[in-house]
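Encode chain A's predicted structure.
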Amino acid sequence: MGGREGDNGAQAHPTVAEHASRGRAARREVPRRALGEWEAPPARADPIAILEEQDKTRVPELVPIRYGRMLVSPFAFFRGAAAIMAADLADGPRTGLQAQLCGDAHLSNFGIFAAPDRRLTFAVNDFDETLPGPFEWDLKRLVASFAVAGRERGLGRRVRSRVSAAVASSYRGAMRDFASMRALDLWYASVDVDELARSFTKQASSADARRLERDLAKARTKDSLKAFSKLTHVVGGKRRIVSEPPLVVPLDELPEAGQRQIAHETVQRLIRDYRRTLSGDRRRLLDRFRYVDAAQKVVGVGSVGTRAWIVLMLGRDADDPLFLQAKEAGVSVLEPYLGKSAYSNHGQRVVEGQWLMQAASDILLGWLREKGADNEPRDFYVRQLWDQKGSASVETMSPRLLEDYGRLCGWTLAKAHARAGDPVAIAAYLGNGDVFDKALAGFAETYADQNERDYAALEHAVKEGRVAAETGL
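Encoded structure for chain A:
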């Protein structure tokens, strides 16, 4: 299964002063203002070619759906363009201060979910591209996402820059706090959503408070029971996943009965393989459920075309469902520039990255490898389909609320990086003034310009017939 990412045998233990000295040395090598600079190099890779390269490993008939979803808006394009931005970041300056990166840290990849004790918590919640790398790569993608989303909301540049600077400032302040914490206190640090909501409600407008209350109520009901009622029905006295091709295609829609039987048996074997990656207590929990049905499901924006399956299982009786999602994990978009993952299985890469960056994770996270009909091995990670998950509705946020959300995301990303990186060195690099904040705000606007040019390039590619796009799905 491979060793743990970052294991290097005996560990060195520098003093706090030595950690801080490393951060100040990085600042001399790469001034903070340099992180605010962006200009497309003359030999910049064709952004559409980068997307087309990803298409080679995806389900061909689903690729047009991916492009259709990316064409919805420049922000939708940005969500699907992590590979493009990774190539751009690789051409820029690097501080050399490493952390475990999300790899796709845009604002929609943060959200709420239920911790094992069932309290709602807020964290980074997408790790498909996770890999160790320079801390600033994640932060640049995060601030740029706020600039892109702010434009879509019709916010002026002054407001957008204030929001972007707030994200960077929150990250910087949080990292300074984490740098002073004892190791265990840092490891346990988390966001309690209920406590956050109470604090927010005291100062928010009545409209924003009501919207937050609705969003939290919706998240609390988004679980396996909700998925059971929405995604299944009874056919011939048996519970089955509802067919909605091409977005949801059950195994029973395979053309030949023999194929269907083989497919169901394969899924059950893969569940047994996945089970081996769980701890003993969680294997006991999984063993309480029996396999019922499975279907291919289209998910996300940038992920469309990768293979994803949902699996229905039942426990004590017909009212005790568990929905699992098995999602393909390929090579991280960061690997061409930061080196290969230490894990031989990319599903494990995703799970280990999530465990490292989150204070609390889905109790049923695991991974597996399978060979498809084409005999090609593919890696998957497995989690609960819905576990009281929710994300922010940025399109309805007031500028002030967007800024507050940006600060929350900045704090959250800093916490994730501090767990796996060197918070003292990063804090020493960032410093106490606002030089870094202004630099990142400037980068966000400049890169949002580049994102709009790349979005226009996709529009042109579709118009010229270079790539096909299917909209409305």
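The chain has a mean pLDDT of 92.
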